[in-house]
Design goal:
Order of helices and strands: EHEEEHHHEEEEHHEHHH
Oligomer: single chain
Number of helices: 9
Helix content: 25-40%
Shape: globular
Structural class: alpha+beta
Low-confidence stretches: 6-27, 77-83
Length: about 240
């Protein structure tokens, strides 16, 4: 298979794609990034991969030593969640997004935005955050090592799925999964003990009123539809908080 070394400015990407796609043997331009990941056109990172080695097939890229990104299959597929109604994380995109292409994904940006002090990065590229000063909204404790933090989806993705998100477009679900208003840095253990439960089934040790208020705010922003009993519980709880 043919490989081409390509380094182009972002504004020229459309012209570059047109050139390769017009080639007589070019079925699909596959981009192998500098880290060795093969991005077919259905990869979520395809458009953001600007500096790459181009292959005329995915098989050629893999045969040359490349590998598929996490969550990307060898052919475009419809997530099982869309077909059979069951929740699937891939329906919300493949992991943390880097929508502006600055190498800081939404996890890193959440850590930067919520740290009380300037964060420290793993390298001069300023992509991965390693330390800062975060106050957990679940306990009020100070956390300084980023490795001790999970980024909590205040409103869990699987909870949203059965309350309206199943009908959203994939783009809207990916926005929701990376929306800063829905992201909180918290302790690893507490986030994992919470799982996919709503506030009527799980509450943090501290900051409960603020947590439920933020949860319900996100429900209204995204026009989700909790079960009637869940809505009643949330409203009753917030009334108690205000009294």
């Amino acid at each position: 298979m043919t490989a081409y070394q390509v380094t182009v400015p972002r504004v020229a990407m459309g012209v570059c794609l047109a050139f390769f796609l017009a080639g007589p043997v070019q079925a699909e331009l596959v981009k192998r990034s500098s880290s060795g990941l093969c991005h077919p056109s259905h990869s979520a990172w395809y458009d953001r991969t600007v500096n790459f080695t181009a292959f005329d097939s995915l098989q050629g890229c893999l045969a040359a030593g490349g590998r598929l990104p996490k969550g990307v299959t060898s052919s475009p597929v419809t997530p099982a969640s869309v077909e059979d109604g069951a929740y699937d994380r891939s329906a919300y995109g493949h992991g943390w997004d880097d929508s502006d292409g600055d190498c800081q994904n939404s996890r890193a940006e959440a850590l930067i935005a919520t740290s009380a002090t300037p964060v420290r990065f793993a390298s001069a590229k300023r992509c991965r955050v390693v330390s800062g000063r975060w106050v957990s909204p679940f306990t009020g404790k100070v956390i300084q090592n980023a490795s001790d933090i999970d980024i909590d989806h205040v409103l869990p993705l699987s909870w949203s799925w059965t309350r309206g998100a199943r009908e959203w477009t994939p783009e809207r679900r990916e926005i929701f999964a990376n929306d800063p208003v829905n992201l909180w840095p918290v302790e690893l253990g507490l986030n994992r003990s919470k799982g996919d439960r709503g506030p009527d089934q799980w509450l943090p040790p501290a900051g409960q009123c603020g947590y439920v208020a933020r949860f319900y705010r996100i429900v209204k922003i995204y026009q989700l539809e909790p079960r009637p009993a869940e809505t009643k519980w949330i409203k009753t709880f917030l009334e108690i908080c205000r009294s």
